[in-house]
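Hi P.,

Sorry for the delay on this. The queue was packed all week, but I finally got your sequence through. Input first:
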Amino acid sequence: MSRIYSYIILFLSALALAYCIYRDIRLERQHPGDLPNRVIGARLQKDGISPYFYGWDSTQPMRYYDPSGYHTIAASNVTASPFFHQLLYPIADLPQRTFSRVWLLIQYLVWAAMLGMVISFTNTSRQKLLILVIGTTFLFTRFWVDTVLKGQNYFLIGLFFLVITLLLTRPGRLLSMLIAGGLMAGVVLIKPTAVFFFPPFLFIWKQWPVKSRLSLLAGSLLVIVSAFASGESRYYWLEYRHALNEHIKLHQRLQPDSGQKALFNRHLNYEGWDMDLSDSAALSYRYKFRGENSNIFVLYEEIFKRRLPVAWMLGLCIVVISALLLFYYRIVVLPDGFTLVQAALLGVCMYIIADLFSPIHRFTYNGAPWLAAFLAIGWYKRLPYIAYILLTIALFLQVTIRYIMPMQYSIGEYLILISFLIIAIQKPSELRA
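Then the structure:
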């Protein structure tokens, strides 16, 4: 690629990044509604109080106030895991207005780190520029923008997936394998369905030395043991499990346990947040959160006008994932072998499939981990033509703010899923520029 084209791409990417940062600062001023429950969950847990059935009222410290809290059911609106709350302990006591700004900064630092790591593992300038273009384009998707708007944390899942994959490129280094094992356990402790990311790695398990495999297992075991070592931690995990069951009932309209809690004054100023200023920010920069759900049970109910039983969701999820793993094993692994990049791409797809079968409503920001898969494209010199076509259509649907068709963003994500399932069939090293 000529130097002039490289400079043009760099210049346009810089302009796009500047615009996205400006846009996201304006969105952050509108009060990310899902972020406070992460902060409150961490603070309560840090103070020795279970956050999962907590109810704030005027007799409680403002430190535990969340304007989006539930008041009609027993469970609170805290849905993050006890392990994730622990990760937030160092910054949980920041004023919530400051925390929100820091969280946006963390989101961009994670984005930059992910791009930087993949770029450092590629050889040609063409691949590096491709990663930059893909990463910058991702900033325009609903996956990213809705994450900023709501203050969500699923982008961290993508970071874990990518770092684990990069560490596994050096199986001969026992420290790398030990850290990778710890991160494997960590991401599952953040979001239990992340366990579905790992089955494809069994296809390359025997390629690693025995000492490396033992280091991987030791790292995982070390983190799991530390997470459940104290009776307090085990109690929080039991509460978390109970609360998730209540949230499933809520999302499936199955009558969760009721609770009478104080009504929240959603316009009360707190910890640096001026809610009138937030409302003004929303009026000055209008961005509509569509609230579109891509779950299988939503599509099933839309088509068949009846609910899909929760047990069926889990059963169908296991069947679909098992069938895909068997397909790849018979059609790809046995005749041609499997690479780490293929395992990682297929792992992201398995995680997303498990997410799609979730009985809890899934929004566009849940797709933030796709960034790890998109960046992995940088290792391919050429993609199947059908993947180019599907990804182009999918990204168009994802970056278009105007609603042009029903279930637009869900359709875009399903096309992305199909695209990466196709890409994962081929080895990066076998493709030609």
